[in-house]
Amino acid sequence: MDSILFHAFNTCDVNTSRSLFTEDLEFYHDAGGFTNYAQNVNSILQRCNNKELKVRRELVKGSLEVFPIHDFGAIQIGSHRFYYAETGQEEKLDGTFKFVHIWKNTNGNWKIARVISYDH
Description:
Elements: H1 2-11, H2 14-19, E1 21-29, E2 33-36, H3 37-49, E3 53-59, E4 65-69, E5 73-86, E6 92-106, E7 109-118
Parallel strand pairs: 1-7
Antiparallel strand pairs: 1-2, 3-5, 4-5, 5-6, 6-7
């Protein structure tokens, strides 16, 4: 599921991105604060509508850990890098950060219910 999330993020597939979050999403970002589902979708739309800046997310190989949560879903922990490229410029590494995703499984339908993004 994370590869689908990464692909949707990197290609600005807003519909897929939006479908991967529960409507009661809670997103905690150590530098940016708390956002809910609507705020998170709005942030994705703003990023994807910005034609002057491209953002790419990349999983740090070997960093991903996944643990089941009985009768709920799974905890996913890892590190990812973000790259930025302004129009006409080369892509630059912004940084390597850590994340925790709490995935909820409802009848085989996996969605992220909680996000913790930290170490910025």
